[in-house]
Amino acid sequence: MVRYAFIWGEETLWTMWKVLTQLMGCSKLILQLLMEEKLACAFRYGREDLDVIGVSFRKDIWIKRIQMYPFEGTKPPNTPMQDALLKKAGDQGHPFTFDIPAHLPCSVSLQPAPEDAGKPCGVDYEVKAYIGNEEDETDEKVEKKDTCRLIIRKIQYAPNELAAGPKTDLNKQFMTADKPIHVEASMEKELYYHGEPIPIKVKVNNETSKVVKKIKISIHQITDVLLYSADKYHKCVLSEEFADQINANSTFEKEYRVTPLLANNKEKRGLSLDGRLKDEDTNLASSTILLPTTDKQMQGLVVSYKIKVTLVMGGGLLGSLTLSDITAELPLVLMSPKPAGLISTLNRLYSQ
Asked: What is the CA 234 to chain-centroid distance, rounded?
């Protein structure tokens, strides 16, 4: 009987924009056989139980294979994390490293319905160690009992340099009014962290005889599915109304604070989430930041957000024929902050 296992520091791989990332780990092999490892980035666009009659709903985006044992060539020096993992693995431990190109997508999954089973649709990363029969045989069929699998996730954290906040101006002219109504919406910055309140400044100069009944703010997630079709999913992740009335021939200025959270969107099927490990909680998918040279088709899913500030108008003499709501839009980037505990994993491993 052959026994082997992964020994891992952390299953979440944090990456920086534009920077190649290294995936490091250690495998424990009891019997010394031909041992190979494969890291695959794939896009799944159908349920596992539909993979029948030779039709697969999984498309590989990127695959990298290495031979762990016997090792070929000159072994590179171990990293501090690998040294810590080898302390746990003992003499049977074999360290490995995968270089992940910066252009590869982050882990994103589409939120399934409560009755859905199996792996969700989206982009995932899987590390697989297996017993090989022949060297340099990339198409070798390996039995399940000879493999060890681990799903990891790749999450991109926000860059240090943040762009200035967006601003939009809008003039609306009504059929029955001589002067327009002017709306200005702005934010201090474009990028906000998951769970961080988002302040939105709204200024209104109402030179008409019409009344604004209330103000509505909504945040929308747009997911472009690029790999197998041209689907686009629009999901409203936040919608709040504020009972601020703006009378005719008056000005108005106020700052609103809103926070989009996955906790308020648990039942929305098809919502994009940051990659999930097992049953752990995650958050709304981070905005996709693309390099200028990135092939968008390689991303599988591209996620973006926008904020809508809507002035809900009171009824006119002819109802909706003469009045319509006024909506100004702002772009929004949602991402995770740089983890403060990246080094804590190593410290924990060394202490064990």
From this structure: 15
- b (16+ CB within 10 A) / e for 278-313: eeeebbbbbbbbeeeebeeebbbbbbbbebbbbbeb
pLDDT confidence band for 2 (50 / 70 / 90) = very low
pLDDT digits over 258-298, tens only? Answer: 999 999 998 888 899 988 766 567 899 999 988 777 777 77
* Burial (Cβ within 10 Å: 0-12, 13-18, ≥19) of residue 225: buried
Q: How far is CA 77 from CA 80, 86, 87, 310, in A?
A: 10, 13, 15, 58
Structure tokens at 349: 């491993």
Taking the C-alpha atoms of residue 223 and residue 233, their distance in angstroms, rounded to an integer, is 5
Q: What is the pTM of this model?
A: 0.80
Neighbours of 250 (CB within 10 A): 13
Tell me if 41 sits within 8 A of 105, measured CB to CB: yes
